[in-house]
Amino acid sequence: MTPDSGYPIYSGLIPGELARRIERGSRMLAACSLCPRLCGIDRRRGEHGFCKGGFLPRVSSFGPHFGEEACLVGTKGSGTIFFTGCNLQCCFCQNYEISHYLQGKETTAAELAATMLRLEQLGCHNINLVTPTQFTPQIVEAIAVAAGQGLSLPIVYNCGGYEALETLRLLEGMVDIYMPDFKFWNEGSAVRYCGARDYPEAARVAIREMHRQVGDLEIRGGLARRGLLVRHLVMPGLVEEAKAIFGFLAGEISKDTFVNVMDQYRPCYRADRFPEIGRRLTGGQFEEALELAAAAGLTRIYS
């Protein structure tokens, strides 16, 4: 990708603005308001909230990843950094060793910046922050440090969709590609599977804001450059929720929203405690979901 003015997007932020973002993020950690759970604990003192995140970011692993969407993977992989903990704690999480059991180690902002630069040296096409919400202020600081040392890759914010508006605005002008999940449409499902009644509304607000910041996904030369990419994991018995989600994306965001309709669901972690999702998809549910996405008017459906 040929370098140009304003790309990646954080190249346009002046040092003074980056310093202000870091300070804003620190204040948010003092009475944690990073996500809609609003735990209010002092993360700067090492207190832990629902997400299990303390002050220092915890990283499980990093490296070139070839299992993401083709426009992120390219030929040399997406430079993923997997953070531990999660503000959703879904009962069916496929990465529960990381999200629930915190397999990983603490790292400083400087070390995180060095990781980003290492991924660039390895030839990765982007920096893909996986489950980053609970460490957003520390990530902002790391991006500022890495940018000052020459980082020139776009930032992918790969999250669960349960985001606070203030946190997203902290990231404005720093994230090139937002990649949220949109998991549930109904409050009942959100309560049952992740204990977050307000998830559906929070996800709608977050996705509107993400689209306002970066617009529809732009792809050049086969690589995602900037924009919104939404993922929806089709789950057993929840196809009607998929229909509502697709309708929202087509009607209130954009018919050109890039949507990855995923069929990778398998019952993991504690899903067997919920018989209705303690199984794989059956009866053509995934194919039905794809048809519903097209019927909603979405024009960029990836599966």
Please state the average pLDDT score: 96
Strand content: 15-25%
CATH architecture assignment name: Alpha-Beta Barrel
Q: Which regions contain 5 or more consecutive residues with pLDDT less than 50? A: none
Termini separation comes to 25 Å
Note the run of SSEs as H and E.
HEHEHEHEHEHEHHEEHEHE
Helical content stands at 25-40%
Describe the structure.
The protein has 303 residues and is an alpha/beta fold. It has one domain: Aldolase class I (TIM Barrel). It is 35% helix and 17% strand. Strands 1, 2, 3, 4, 5, 6, 7, 8, 9 and 10 form a ten-stranded mixed beta sheet that branches. Strand 8, helix 9 and strand 9 form a beta-alpha-beta unit. Helix 9 runs parallel beside helix 10. It is globular, with a radius of gyration of 18 Å.
Please outline the helices and strands.
Elements: H1 15-30, E1 58-65, H2 70-73, E2 78-83, H3 96-99, E3 105-106, H4 109-121, E4 127-130, H5 136-148, E5 155-159, H6 165-171, E6 177-180, H7 187-194, H8 199-214, E7 218-220, E8 223-233, H9 239-253, E9 258-262, H10 285-295, E10 300-302
Parallel strand pairs: 2-4, 4-5, 5-6, 6-8, 8-9, 9-10
Antiparallel strand pairs: 1-2, 1-3, 7-8
Summarize this structure as a short list of keywords or feature phrases.
alpha/beta, ten-stranded mixed beta sheet, 303 residues, TIM Barrel, 10 helices, 35% helix, single chain, 17% strand
Concise synopsis of the structure shown:
With 303 residues, the protein is of the alpha/beta class.
